[in-house]
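User: Could you check the structure of this?
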Amino acid sequence: MVSGDTPGAGAAGSAAARRDAAVRAWTALRPRLAADATAALGEAEADAFVTRAELALFDVHVPLGLLYGDRADALFERALRTALAAAAERPAALRRLDRRREIDPGWFLRARVQGYVCYVDRFCGTLDRLPEHLDHLEELGTTYLHLMPLLEPREGENDGGYAVADYRAVDPRLGTMADLEAAAAALHAWDMSLCIDLVLNHTAREHPWAQGWLAGDPAYAGFYSAFPDRTLPDAYDATIPEVFPDRAPGSFSWVPEACGGAGGWVWTTFWPYQWDLDYTNPEVTLAMLGEITWLANRGVDVFRMDAVPFMWKRMGTSCQNQPEGHTLLQLLHALTRLAAPGVVFKAEAIVAPDDLVAYLGAHERFRPECELAYHNSLMVLLWSSLATGDVRLARQALRRMRPIPPTTTWVTYVRGHDDIGWAITDADAGAVGLDGFAHRRFLNDFYSGRFPGSFARGALFQENEATGDARVSGSAASLCGIEDALERDDPAALDAGVRRLLLLYSVAYAFGGIPLLYMGDELALRNDTGYLDDPERAPDNRWMHRPPMDWGAAARRTDPATLEGRVFAAVRRLGEVRRSLLALRGGTEPEVLDAGSDAVLVWRRRHPRSGTFVGVANVSPHPQQVDADTVTGFGTFAQVHASDGPLGVRDGRLTVPGLGWAWFAEP
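Assistant: Sure, the predicted structure tokens are below.
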């Protein structure tokens, strides 16, 4: 693990020297690589592969030099040959898909792209039954399906599937790898892409790499880190925030079998059974590249790169968001796209706004890392605004975020599978007169139902009574007040809860990026307490917002008199209107405006080939007035969609109903 400067940084020299070294290595390797590529791929495919390699030269060789110093040239050849072998094994159907995406490299930026996320067992039971339900997704306009962790986990407790025991096998409870390939082919036939989770930071202790490392197999030497005593672990822990302070404090776990049987403290950022990989060892990087490209050849289009901020460690830091971690992502991205140019990466980086944009390559000088990243900040700020009835914090924080590269885009969402951690900085809170700690505590109290008058039915997750830190679990519908209203049989409260849910999705669908619909939100599914009957899941209350799909409720989706029918029709319509608006295409950034009301979030978008779009969302339960000229462009923008029909303008002010929203677009 890193404790000082970047390995090889001094030897690598200046940026110009690194580029010169890359050119020399490529010049020496190219003739042999081209000949081998022709033998493996045929002349036309080989020409394409070598061209891709030449274009990616500085994204492959330079990172190798930065990370591994003098070993860069040898690793360069091994890495390119790993990619070539994967390209040679790539099925013909996936090669055709690659060609289409190379012609249309911004395919994932289009306004028609919208996502859906689910657990396989919760949605359809097993992978072989997934094709039976693709019509449900097609009705919603889904073009991007994210299946939550499905690779084979360790038995017993496994962090919801994120403790992977085998990257090349599917959880046997869900099916087989052949079933996953068939599901990918079915999705492609419906013009949908497949996203799966790939855990990069760690494996389960049962993974063959970990077991080989424990056994002293030289093939896995240095794959993980262990320390014979607490000296270095204590030094690292002094500056590393705890992820699970109540059940897994610290970042190291004692493993009696480590250090040749003498015992050692193994790096375990998350749970004791999840062992962090040591990417200072290039063999780990090449091994992970092999797993990524193998899965890509099974039909995976998008990899959600799990826990990427933790991949590189440095003494005296939080061991998150380290520069080498970004360099490592750049390297893996470039090499994967040599073998499978239609594949994209999505960063799972639940970090502060200032750190978030870097995972899309937005450094002082652009470096391709991931094409997609979760807009965690937008999600958090929407829930914060809904609790306070005030958008000043959202306006401040969103305005301060650095722009992202135009070849990348956000994934915008209301709810995910995880708990909600309040990633709100003290600086942003202070800028609008709030105390950051007090506001985060208020949000925990509000959404756990502790705050007087709260409509939410959530629960605290990982509460640290010593520090007051906690996160929140709960389904979107329950956090919006729908569960509470149904239990009280209060039609007015139910209407308000539905309006809150659709208000949030109106922003997610139009802020810019790929909107991601979490399974069940289209039917307003509430918290599920069934997880308490499962001993493996009972300690983790995040399962309350991971309910099984209610296909009985789904059968009511076409009945406008039902809750499910009302919500499903509204969500479906959001997608239909979105697909008609070029301004909602990715590749451009929204501008957050102040239109004269601190209760109304207003944002403006414009694509170079479209007119201007303006969205408004009133987080207050009361009508609010905004400046009509700011919103409607001096009356030239048409209202294209809204919660309550045409909005009235009087004396230059546009009235937005309580918990209402509207979209305007320049003809």
